[in-house]
Design brief:
Residues 118-150 have a biased composition (Low complexity). Residues 106-150 are annotated as: Disordered. The protein is an all-alpha fold and 150 residues long. The longest helix is centred in the middle third of the chain and has 36 residues, at 75-110. It has helices at 20-42, 52-64, 68-72, 75-110, 113-123, 135-142. The protein folds into 2 domains: 20-107; 113-142, no CATH class.
Length: 150
């Protein structure tokens, strides 16, 4: 499993508040992390987004603590983060949909007696047509499959 999101490393300014430059740098790092996560999700890799919400909340709180003029400088970097979330969400949705379809397809084949009959007939080297008396029927019974012949 890929590593989880690294913890926030915003460095506080001497007064205890974080600088707009530091927040912008962290937003850029987080944006790159989101782009990497999107690429991994599109490739089918399960990703770990642990800590994402905390990191975004930390950036937002730090931006809110800045004077209005400095905070305006962050509209672009924080807007880029919002823009990166859309494609990531779409990739994760597509990935989940693909997994659900794969599971549904696998489950659909297991419980279908027709498909089970085809697999058994193929295993005994006979076509999957209507079963008559003989080796194929014995093989179906041996495999625990129902005999649907009239």
């Amino acid at each position: 499993m890929p590593p989880s999101m690294p913890p926030s490393s915003l460095s506080p300014s001497p007064e205890g508040a974080e600088s707009a430059i530091g927040i912008a740098q962290q937003a850029a790092v987080l944006g790159a992390t989101l782009d990497d996560a999107r690429a991994q999700a599109e490739a089918g890799v399960l990703i770990d987004l642990a800590g994402l919400e905390d990191r975004v909340a930390h950036l937002c709180l730090a931006a809110e603590a800045l004077p209005r003029g400095e905070a305006r400088m962050l509209l672009g970097p924080l807007g880029d983060l919002v823009a990166a979330l859309g494609p990531l969400a779409a990739a994760l949705t597509d990935q989940q949909k693909g997994r659900e379809e794969a599971v549904a397809a696998a489950l659909a084949g297991r419980d279908d007696p027709h498909t089970a009959r085809q697999r058994a007939a193929a295993a005994y080297g006979r076509s999957a047509g209507p079963a008559g008396p003989g080796l194929a029927d014995a093989g179906l019974a041996e495999a625990g499959l129902p005999d649907d012949s009239p």
